[in-house]
């Protein structure tokens, strides 16, 4: 019974719909209204006398009285009326600079689509050199793009072009082709990091008495290393030759940092020494700590050092020869193994299992970060994030403002001795001889599974990893095996082989480079003496 009623209703509805359609059809074929033209002209004259709001209101009333097919017709000629080629109009009116400014905010995909709209839009893109400006914008705001522009040499075609040997000014099409090439280059570099494709260069330091490279720092031209044999050695990045040996410390060189003018080193002899980068001359010796100087950092006229004597010293550096102590920070109950700082916080880590935070300007204590189960050997602080490594074999990521531990990374088998991170990656080195690369972005996401965080493990060192530094293209590390290794991830594909370059270098002595198709075999080392850090 219900089914019959339903069918009846449906049939009735259909009949009514057909009647409506018929009425609409008949109305559409109906002859024109008498005096239509005269009445419409009068109406338009009256309409023009209305205010804008009154015009809108009356049109809205008209639309409400129309059928759907009438509204559809109105829409078909209304849409084109609403579309305006504002870029083309700006261009024809001599306001191309404004059009270029507007399109200059587009990303690469939108810019590619814009070129295909019409000739006028393509003309604005090409004449405004918008692909060049997009590359320049990327170079200014992205470290990888900036570094790659220097490495690949196309930086000279940006901003004010530095042309050589009668080169012609580069035009729009050059930058239009350059942009996707850069993107492919960056994609290859990222793939190399993920898959472990790299070229390996090895510097054999040939220490005289005791072996081991405790610290290093590098730039495009040189590597400066501090060795267990009490020396500082400077290496040429291109030839891998040792160009200078600085002597003066009576103990192992445990930490160093340099800028364009000076090298500052800390030693197990309890002294801090300042050297000239250019000449290697000893400029100053600072005496304050009563035990080994384990770590130091300096920037913008401030230096912070820490020691096995459990103290942290804050120094004012007016010049290499004018350095005075400003404040001594105490609070740790064991050796302070590492410090880092910026203009807001000084951060220190100790063998007492704690990380302490101090205000940089006042040197007042702020908070303690608790979580590691054993002593802390290394940390880095940057952009509100602290990453620390410990002899509990773990790495912890902290929010410095609230003191919360955001993530624990597990994977090393022994003490995590050195750690660095940037906006994308954490790179750690440990006493298990391994260097691990971690995905920082994933690590900061609490939903990411723990087994997805380690991107790659490098096992080329045959001894404990003491120190490392990295950038977008490479890792440079040092070890108790008396070597410095350079892992280069730039411009390789999955088909490329990993090669090892072994260099035996001493000052003023020729060297040989041997190419191999696999990493050097691990060899058993005599265990080194106990480390100076208290962990």
Strand order of the largest sheet: 26-27-28-1-29-30
Number of strands: 30
For the record, give the distance between the C-alpha atoms at the N and C termini, rounded to a whole number: 87 Å
Structural class: alpha+beta
The name CATH uses for the topology of the domain at 200-488 is: Methylamine Dehydrogenase, Chain H
How many helices? The count is 12
- The oligomeric state of the chains shown is single chain
Give the fraction of residues assigned to helices: 25-40%
Uncertain runs: 1-12, 14-28, 493-532
> Could you state the CATH homologous superfamily of the domain at 200-488?
YVTN repeat-like/Quinoprotein amine dehydrogenase
Question: Beta-strand percentage?
Answer: 25-35%
Radius of gyration: 35 Å
Give the CATH architecture of the domain at 200-488: 7 Propeller
Tell the overall outline.
elongated
Largest sheet: 6 strands, mixed
CATH C-level category of the domain at 200-488: Mainly Beta
| Average of the residue pLDDT scores | 85
Keywords: Repeat, Ubl conjugation pathway, WD repeat
GO molecular function: protein dimerization activity
Protein name: F-box domain-containing protein
Organism: Didymodactylos carnosus
Reconstruct the topology from this structure:
Elements: H1 2-28, H2 36-49, H3 52-64, H4 68-82, H5 86-92, H6 96-103, H7 108-115, H8 119-127, H9 130-141, H10 143-152, H11 172-195, E1 199-204, E2 213-218, E3 222-227, E4 232-236, E5 242-246, E6 253-258, E7 262-267, E8 271-276, E9 282-287, E10 293-299, E11 302-307, E12 312-319, E13 322-329, E14 336-341, E15 345-350, E16 354-359, E17 365-370, E18 376-382, E19 385-390, E20 394-399, E21 405-410, E22 416-421, E23 425-430, E24 435-439, H12 440-443, E25 454-458, E26 465-470, E27 474-479, E28 483-488, E29 500-504, E30 513-516
Parallel strand pairs: 1-29
Antiparallel strand pairs: 1-28, 2-3, 3-4, 4-5, 6-7, 7-8, 8-9, 10-11, 11-12, 12-13, 14-15, 15-16, 16-17, 18-19, 19-20, 20-21, 22-23, 23-24, 24-25, 26-27, 27-28, 29-30
Helix pairs in contact: 5-6, 9-10, 9-11
């Amino acid at each position: 019974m219900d089914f019959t009623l339903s069918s009846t209703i449906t049939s009735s509805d259909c009949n009514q719909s057909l009647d409506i359609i018929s009425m609409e059809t008949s109305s559409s074929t109906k002859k024109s209204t008498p005096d239509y033209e005269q009445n419409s002209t009068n109406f338009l004259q009256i309409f023009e006398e209305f205010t804008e709001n009154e015009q809108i209101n009356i049109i809205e009333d008209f639309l409400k009285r129309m059928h759907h097919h009438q509204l559809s017709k109105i829409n078909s000629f209304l849409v084109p009326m609403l579309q305006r080629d504002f870029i083309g109009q700006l261009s024809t009116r001599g306001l191309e600079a404004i059009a270029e400014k507007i399109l200059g905010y587009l990303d690469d995909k939108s810019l590619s689509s814009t070129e295909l709209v019409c000739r006028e839009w393509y003309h604005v893109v090409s004449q405004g050199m918008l692909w060049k400006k997009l590359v320049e914008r990327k170079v200014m705001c992205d470290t990888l793009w900036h570094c790659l522009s220097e490495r690949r040499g196309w930086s000279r075609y940006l901003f004010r072009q530095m042309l050589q040997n009668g080169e012609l000014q580069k035009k729009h099409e050059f930058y239009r082709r350059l942009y996707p090439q850069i993107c492919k280059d960056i994609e290859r570099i990222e793939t190399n990091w993920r898959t472990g494709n790299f070229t390996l260069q090895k510097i054999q330091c040939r220490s005289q008495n005791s072996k081991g490279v405790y610290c290093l720092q590098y730039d495009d031209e040189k590597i400066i290393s501090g060795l267990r044999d009490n020396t500082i050695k400077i290496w040429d990045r291109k030839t891998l030759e040792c160009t200078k040996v600085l002597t003066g410390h009576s103990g192992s060189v445990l930490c160093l940092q340099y800028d364009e003018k000076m090298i500052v080193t800390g030693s197990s002899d309890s002294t801090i020494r300042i050297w000239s980068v250019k000449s290697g001359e000893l400029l100053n010796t600072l005496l304050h700590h009563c035990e080994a100087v384990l770590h130091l950092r300096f920037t913008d006229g401030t230096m912070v050092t820490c020691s096995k004597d459990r103290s942290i010293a804050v120094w004012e550096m007016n010049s290499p020869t004018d350095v005075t102590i400003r404040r001594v920070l105490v609070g740790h109950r064991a050796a302070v193994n590492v410090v880092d700082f910026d203009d807001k916080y000084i951060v220190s880590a100790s063998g007492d299992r704690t990380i302490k935070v101090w205000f940089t300007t006042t040197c007042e204590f702020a908070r303690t970060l608790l979580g590691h189960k054993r002593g802390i050997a290394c940390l880095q602080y940057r952009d509100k994030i602290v990453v620390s490594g410990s002899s509990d074999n773990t790495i912890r990521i902290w929010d410095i403002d609230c003191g919360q531990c955001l993530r624990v990374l597990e994977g090393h088998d022994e003490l995590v001795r050195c750690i660095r991170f940037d906006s994308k990656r954490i790179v750690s080195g440990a006493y298990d001889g391994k260097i691990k690369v971690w995905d920082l972005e994933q690590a900061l996401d609490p939903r990411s599974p723990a087994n997805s965080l380690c991107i790659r493990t490098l096992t080329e060192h045959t001894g404990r990893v003491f120190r490392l530094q990295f950038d977008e293209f490479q890792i440079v590390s040092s070890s108790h095996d008396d070597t410095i290794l350079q892992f280069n991830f730039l411009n390789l594909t999955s088909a490329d082989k990993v090669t090892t370059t072994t260099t035996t270098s001493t000052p003023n002595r020729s060297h040989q480079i041997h190419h191999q198709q696999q990493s050097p075999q691990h060899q058993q080392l005599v265990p080194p003496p106990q480390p100076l850090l208290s962990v």
